[in-house]
Specification:
31% helix; alpha/beta; Rossmann fold; 6 helices
């Protein structure tokens, strides 16, 4: 479970947010551009320091301003997939997935087993030997998801992962994410500005406006509050 209370003074407004994501749950963060969605993910990952607050993941304190605790990025055990599906184009799909495990000096047999398992989860086993630079946008996102999961994260986060994908690829990647979160039983945060994404894959939705949680509930109950959100 993820539990976070975050405060960060941004250029145009203050981000003041309390969020919780349960095990096996997909929490969708929605809002207009500039609402603070990506900032939340960057704070949780450790890429950006909040001014105050706390972050707990499965009971482990990752950040607590009052106690001076701030766990470094590489020790937070968080899988983070960015919008641009940053794969290494010059190496194969299997090598991309294995990259983080090799960096942690895992045994080669363990790496091979884990890579095969993850490629199966996101349905890219048939692409194992293909150079990542030759993949479609949807295939690259699947590789990025598998690579993020390779470290066996306690939390999966995806920042606008469907923006550049066509309808078929988007549905395929959404299904892959749902399968992984369900099978691995980890919380997942998905940032999007599309109501359709929330309906298609979210368990709960947090609607942000200028750094504040304006509403939280089921995707089927999303209100507009006058906020312009693409469908």
């Amino acid at each position: 479970m993820l539990e976070a209370a975050l405060h960060k003074q941004l250029r145009d407004f203050s981000l003041d947010l309390n969020i919780q994501a349960n095990t096996g749950e997909i929490l969708v963060l929605m809002g207009e551009n500039g609402a603070g969605k990506s900032t939340v993910l960057n704070i949780l990952s450790g890429l950006l320091m909040p001014d105050a607050g706390s972050i707990r993941l499965n009971g482990r304190v990752l950040y607590q301003s009052a106690a001076g605790i701030c766990v470094p990025v590489e020790s937070r055990c968080i899988g983070y997939v960015l919008q641009n599906s940053a794969v290494f184009p010059h190496i194969s799909v299997s090598e991309n997935v294995a990259y983080g495990m090799k960096a942690h000096h895992m045994h080669k047999d363990q790496i091979a087993e884990q890579v095969d398992h993850l490629m199966g989860l996101v349905d890219i086993r048939n692409l194992a030997d293909v150079k990542a630079g030759k993949l479609s946008g949807g295939q690259k996102q699947r590789v990025a998801i598998a690579r993020a999961l390779a470290i066996e994260p306690d939390l999966l986060m995806l920042d606008e992962p469907f923006t550049a994908l066509d309808t078929e690829s988007r549905q395929s990647v959404q299904e892959a994410v749902r399968t992984c979160v369900s099978n691995l039983q980890i919380p997942c945060l998905v940032v999007t500005h599309r109501v359709a994404d929330a309906h298609e894959m979210g368990d709960r939705v947090c609607l942000l406006n200028r750094g504040v949680n304006r509403w939280e509930g089921r995707p089927s109950d999303i209100p507009s509050f006058g906020i312009k959100l693409p469908t």
